[in-house]
What does this fold into?
Amino acid sequence: MVALVGGRNLLFFDQIGSFLPPMLEHCQLAGWNATHANGELQASFIDRQDILWFCWGDQMVAHVLRRPWKGTVVVHTRSYEVYQSWYPKLPWDQVDWLVFDAPHVRDVALDRVPALKDKPIGMMILGVDPAVYTVRDKADSPQGNHCACVGRLVEPKNIQAVVDLAYQLPDYLFHLKGPVGDQRLERFIHYHIEQGRTNIYYHPPGAPDAQGQFRGQQWYTGEGVHALLKKCDFILSPSFHEGVHLALLEGVSTGLQPVAQDRPGLVVPGEFAYKTLQEAAHQIRHPVAWSPDDYHDWVVEHRSLRVQHDRMDEILENL
It folds into this structure.
């Protein structure tokens, strides 16, 4: 299974599409005949491709590869699917290249499917586009006491830690923004708010309305989360497991100091990691002497889409 000589036809399979648009646009600008599929395609169209790039190591891989395939197959595995029961059962013998978001995700995959150790592996850590994030003005939070935690509020995000910090730091305000994926967790958050924990704010998903309230669209449409981040000082990432955590990078791009649980694959410098909530509280009380522009510039240098696309170019050149 080798790509056709000089072949520039690249087909991305992605049913969700949340990470794909920048990758697709970059490849098209780089001269690839790149297209995107999120469902059924005619076999004749697939057969005209040189490379199939599966953006998730999921059941789509097994579905498409039921037919013999003459070109190169790339499977990009993320932290979600690598733990699923069906992951080792995918048709790995038909896959040529593996791509991972982070070294710890790669290590889990190789432990679960030892045969993958014989395949070429590329590392492409996801990034964000710093140009779309306006660096915050410290004047918007003169007391320096606003802490944000944004994204899908589900179990691995460890949102309970934010509630704990709200009790430890009563003079700081803690903003939770994003859809809650578990009704038990949602009831837990509202329970503590109703118990008088007045420094916890839950912002429903969406952009701010005329009264400044956050309602409506999903958090990942961007407008609502950006408006909130620009009024905050810290971006919290208490998750016990992440592949990359793009919401954390969005906050850092906006000029917020990261306060992140130490964990495999942490994407910010170690000085912003904590092992205990007491350490997290200390970091918030004693901010690091970086300016908002310093945080933004760090993302430009280390975790931007440019860095991601450079890694992607290296992988495509070696297929």
